[in-house]
Amino acid sequence: MLVMGYMSGTSLDGVDVALLETDGERIAAFGPGAMTAYSAAERDALEKATRDALAWNGYGARPHSFALAAEVIEAAHLRAGEQVIARAGRRPDLVGFHGQTLLHRPERRLSVQIGDPQVLADALGVSVVAQMRQDDLLAGGQGAPLVPAYHAALAERLGLAGPIAFLNLGGVANLTWIGADGSLVAFDTGPGNGLIDQVVQARGAGRYDEGGRIAAAGAVDAAVLAMLLEHEHFRGSGPKSLDRYDFPLEWAGARSLEDAAATLTAFTAEAVRASLRLLPAAPKVWIVCGGGSHNPTLMQALRARLGDCRTADEVGLRGDYVEAEAMAFLAARSLRGLPLTYPGTTGVGRPLTGGAIWRPDAALAGVV
What we know:
Helix content is 36%, strand content 20%. The protein is α/β, with parallel strands linked by helices. The protein starts with a strand and ends in a 10-residue tail after the last strand.
């Protein structure tokens, strides 16, 4: 069936949409994909809701900004989805909707994604699968990462024998290790682009370190890097997940922008290298996707530490749309009652299905 998947990451740059022909087990074909940027006003609303979520931290009444930000998410997703549907020339059979994560506290079984699936279902006239991490959280899992089942399908399509790893560099970085026998291990390795973006934005130098040029002009502060690597996330073992705001940035104000960016770039790469001790065997090849795959300075840092790192685009995939495709793939799995998460990926006790379905109101379908 033709499934449309959405992803809006914590970088808040826009909505990724991708169409996928899949049964939730294999990938038959890739349909059109597109990224629709948020306007400045939309981004402001999302940033305010994110700040409010950190202050709220799950206690008491939800801030009013959540509802306003949800309206932004719904409108932007509808706008983006209709564009891709027009390019495809047909409506999908199903939609996978992740929503916008404002807060992730898995130790309290709390993960907040905003956006109403019913609004999308009614406007698109298509059933929507959403809340795909909630069952995992309630069962004691981390609720993240969600993408490993799709990474395994991509590896099968590419004919890549394990052990290999997929590394997604979004606001937070996460990896999926796929063994020769198809076994899966996954977890958040640490920061992705999020901390670098925050520092660049705070200095008025743009939305992100374009081309890694700012970091390339700086020097790594070894003492700060060592301090960052002492974070509790890097202790112990087992599946684990993060919020992009879990790491301190107070130290950055006393450094030049270039040195802060260089240090944070090294931190992302070192955190991935530190993850090697948690893997059953070193990957033969790393496939890197997400926004960080377009940062040559970060890619160089990863290759220096990990060896064979190839961008998803270099192996024939669509690196910018892997997570949106994954939401489509997981929606199909959810519809069929197939597992979305596993003990090795989220720490849940057994392979677990997840997600709920919102069906369109026939009287409202097609009305945006």
